[in-house]
Amino acid sequence: MKAEAVNKPAAVKLRLTKKLKRSNNNNLAGYIFISPWLLGFLLLTVWPIIQSFYLSFTEYSLLEAPTWTGTQNYVNIFKNDTDFTTSLKVTFIFVLFSVPLKLFFSLMVAMMLNKNLKGMNLYRTAIYFPSLIGGSVAVAALWRNMFSLNGYFNQVLAWFGIEGVGWITNPDTSLGTLILLNTWQFGSTMVIFLAGLKQIPNELYESASVDGASKIRKFFHITLPMLSPVMFFNLVLGIIGSFQMFTAASIITQGGPINSTYMYALFLYDKAFKHYQMGYASALAWILLVIVALITAINFLVSRYWVFYETDGGKQK
Amino acid sequence: MKQSILKGLTLLTLAATLALTACGNSGGNNGESNAANSGGKADPNAPVKLKIMWQGPDTRHQAMLKTQEVYTKLNPSVTFSPEYMAWDDYWKKLPTLAASHSLPDVLHMDGAYIQEFATRGTLEDLSDIDLTGVIDDKTLENLKIDGKLYGIPISRNAQGIAFNKEALAAAGIELPKKDWTWDEYFDFARNARAKLPEGVYPIGDSTTWDHYLYYQMSYGKGPIIQEDGKKFNLDKELFMKFYGIYAEFREKKIVPPADMGSAFKDNDPQADPMASGKVMTRGATVGSVGALTQLMPGKVGIVNMPVGPEGGGWAQPTIFLSVSTDAKHKDAAKAFIKWFVTEKEAGQTYGMNFGIPIYDDIYAALEPNLEEKDKLGKELYDVAKDKAMPFSPAAAGWTEWIDNYKKTMDAVMFGQKSLEDAYNEITKSGNAIAEKQSSK
Question: pTM, whole model, 2 decimals?
Answer without folding.
Answer: 0.79
